[in-house]
Task: structure prediction
Amino acid sequence: MIVCHCTNITDHEIRAAIDWMRASDEQAIITPGKVYHALGKSADCGGCMPLFLDTMRSSDNLEVPMQLRALRAGATQEKPDRGQPQGHRIPQQIPAA
Result:
């Protein structure tokens, strides 16, 4: 089935690209951009993106490697407060009287 009419990409090509990327690097994070690049093409209008993503998600080789799954949990933890202002503005100092 043709997934992207602008660049003439089929569901078989998407799955083959994912399989190829997974075989060459088991720890790779596979994105739509990487699939387009592997096929030697680039996104045009973006109208195919929902179907493109659904096709990618249906591939068994798309899973995020186990070693990389916990990275997001560590990135969302709050950083300790070091007494620094939270905003981006310089705090106004009131002159001593």
